[in-house]
Design goal:
Layout: H1 7-24, H2 30-37, H3 41-47, H4 51-71, H5 80-97, H6 99-108, H7 116-125, H8 127-137, H9 147-167, H10 172-187, H11 190-197
Helix pairs in contact: 1-2, 1-6, 4-5, 4-7, 5-8, 5-9, 9-10
Length: 199
């Protein structure tokens, strides 16, 4: 008879996988993850039947956690720029507060064994954020570009800004402000930029 699974142990394995992948990369053995979690390799496979299953579930877990942290309390009745700035600020807070999760996600984002189904689940979780980005870029220089391309550009600015904030914490506020200004200029229409600048 199989032993009952523990949510606490599953969470410990996911946390250990985050730390191990962040420091050793996706090539790290499941035995290293099990050791980090304080469980046997056999116990790990009671919760995740393969390494591929583990990394896919970890990807969903990390993305869901990041999405929840970034969008919590979003002022949906505020102006578009204010909503985007709110998301930006919370994203910077998450990125600088959880560097291991961020490093693990950076590797999982480009992993070959993240399935299409997993990517679809993650996309569904970010649909409200994607809808806000669509409204933000309406009439702007990126209006006719594929959403994936716009998300890629935005993510590059976000990641570069977070890196600068971590490298130079004494100027974190300045880097954050400059990064947001750069992203907003990529997204916003000239009329929206002018309206913003006159505030």
């Amino acid at each position: 008879m199989a032993r009952p699974r523990s949510d606490e142990r599953r969470t410990a394995i996911l946390a250990a996988a985050t730390r191990v992948i962040a420091t050793r990369g996706l090539g790290a053995a499941t035995a290293a993850i099990a050791k980090e979690a304080g469980v046997s390799n056999g116990s790990l496979f009671l919760y995740f039947d393969s390494k591929s299953t583990l990394v896919n579930e970890l990807y969903i877990d990390l993305k869901a956690g990041m999405g929840a942290a970034v969008t919590a309390g979003l002022p949906t009745d505020a102006a578009i720029r204010d909503q985007v700035h709110y998301l930006w600020t919370r994203w910077m807070t998450w990125a600088t507060s959880f560097p291991e999760k961020r490093r693990a996600l950076a590797q999982l984002d480009v992993a070959d064994n993240i399935t299409a189904e997993t990517h679809e689940k993650v996309s569904l979780g970010f649909r409200d954020l994607a809808a806000l980005l669509e409204r933000a870029r309406s009439g702007g220089p990126m209006d006719d570009q594929p959403l994936g391309f716009v998300l890629g550009l935005s993510t590059a600015i976000i990641e570069s800004t977070a890196d600068a904030m971590i490298r130079e914490p004494e100027n974190a506020a300045g880097h954050s402000a400059a990064g947001f200004d750069a992203m907003w200029r990529v997204l916003a229409s000239p009329s929206r930029m002018e309206a913003t600048e006159t505030l």
